[in-house]
Amino acid sequence: MASEDRVTRAGTPERWSRIVTYKPNADGRVEGVRDDGFEDSSLVHEVAWQVIHRDAAEAWRQVHQGLKSPLYYHMVANLLNPQMLAREVGMWTWRVRRHFRPGVFAALKPAMLQKYAGALRLTVQELASIPPEPPPVDPPSPGTGG
Amino acid sequence: MQIPFRHVQGAHCETATIAALLQHQGLQVNEPQVFGVGSGYFFAYLPFIKVTDKKFPLVTFRAQPGAILKNVGRRLGVKWHDVTFKDPAKAMDALDRSLDAGIPTAVQTGVYWLPYLPGAFRFHFNAHNVIVYGREGDEYLLSDPVLAEPVRCSRADLQRARYARGDMAPNGRLYYPAVVPRQTDLRGPVRAGLKDACFNMLKIPFPLIGVRGIRRLAKVVQGWPRRLGPEMAALNVGHLVLLLEEIGTGGAGFRFMYGAFLGEAAGILGIDGLSDASRRLTAVGDTWREFALLASRTCKGRKVVERPYDRLAELLRECADREQAIFRDVQALLRRGAA
Description:
The complex is a heterodimer.
Chain A lengths: L3 H4 L11 E6 L5 E6 L5 H24 L5 H8 L4 H8 L3 H6 L3 H5 L3 H11 L3 H4 L19
Antiparallel strand pairs in A: 1-2
Helix pairs in contact in A: 2-3
Chain B lengths: L12 H12 L6 H7 L3 E11 L4 E7 L4 H10 L2 E5 L4 H13 L4 E5 L18 E9 L2 E5 L7 E4 H8 L11 E6 L7 H17 L6 H37 L8 H15 L3 H28 L7 H31 L1
Antiparallel strand pairs in B: 1-2, 3-8, 4-5, 4-8, 5-6, 6-7
C-alpha cells in the first residue's frame, strides 16, 4: 500500500457503496435500512480531494526542484502534518522538520530511514524517491471558492 | 480457523460493534438500543480542539469514544475485557489467543491504515472499531460494521492500524464481553439512557454543549465568510457535512438512529408519548439533512440561495429549538411515567 494509491489518481476516490440509516417504515416504526447514502456530500469529497491533490502537487514540485526532501512529499501525500508524522515515529517535531531539508535527509542513517519507511508503510527506496510525474491536479469546478 | 459469526452492517462502528458482540453472546439488543442505553446522543461545538490537520473546529454529535461501551456495560451488567498493550507483538498474540478461545474480539484501529477501505475514507481517525472473528494463516477475517460484507486484512496491516499514533491512539486496544447476563430487563437501562440524553442536551451549564452548543455553532457559521474568507469558510462547512453525514453517524448526525431508539423506548417503557417524540426527532433529522445539503452545495460553490451562511445558521437554530422541545417533552414523560 504505497502512498501513490491515494494521490496519483485523478478525481475523487470511491466512497462506501451503501450505508445503513434509520428511517420510519409503513407502520411509523423507525428501523435500519440500507441506503445509498447522502449523495450530496460527495460534493464535499470532490472539494476536499481537490485540496489534497493541490497540496500533494505543490509538495512534489518543491521536492522536484530540490527545495525539500522526499520525506516531505510522502508526509503530504499521506495526509499528515509534521506534528502527526513526529508522533508516528516518536521523535520531536523540530527533528522531523529538519529532515525535510534535502541535505540533512541525504545524510540520514539507514536505521532512521527505516523508521520513517515503517511508519509510512513504504520501502526505503520508495521513501527516498518521489514518483516520476507530479500527482494530477483536478480541474477547478465552475464556481469553486465562491 | 474461523468463529461462526454473523456479520451485520451498522450505522456507526462503536454501537454496531457492541451490539454484534453482545448478540453473539446471546444478549438480544440492537444497534439503536445500544446507542440509547449507552447515552450516545450528544452535541458539542469545541473550537479549541482542532481536527483534520489541525485546521477545523471539532463538532461532535455523539458522546466521546468509549463512553457508550462504559455505559452499556454498567447499565446492562456486561463486564468488558478491555486492554491495551505497549508491545505490538504482545497485542497481536493476545488477539490470536482470544480467537483461539473462540471469542470474536473487537480491536480499535486507525482507519487510514486499513487497506480494504475505499480510498475516500483514508483519513487519520484512530477510534474505528472492527471485530476480528477468525484467522487464516497470515490473514485476519474482519467484520467491519461500516461495510456490507466481511473482509480480510493482513497481519502487518492490522498491526499497523492497531498502532496508529496521534490523537486517541489505539495502543493495540482490544475488547470483548467477558461476562454477559443471561437476560436483562431493559426498562431501567433505557430510562437511564433517556435521562442522560435529556441532561446532556438541556442542562449542562456550558454554552458549547447541547442545544446551546447548536445555537452557538449557528452564530459562528454565520460569521465564517467574514472571519475566514470565502475559501476557508467553504472548507469549514464542508467539514461540518463530513462530521454530520460521513463518519458513520447513520445520517444526520445520529438523529435518525436516536429516533429509532425513542420508538424502541416507547415499547419497552410502555410510554406512548415517546413514539411521538421518535417521529419528531426523525423530522429534525430531515432538517439536519437539509442543512447538510445546502452546506455541501455551498462548499462546492454552487449558489442556491442568497446569503447561504445566514440560511445555514437559520436551519441550525431551527434544529436547536425543535430538539429542545422534544427533550423537554421526553423529560416530562419520564417524570409522569415514574409517578
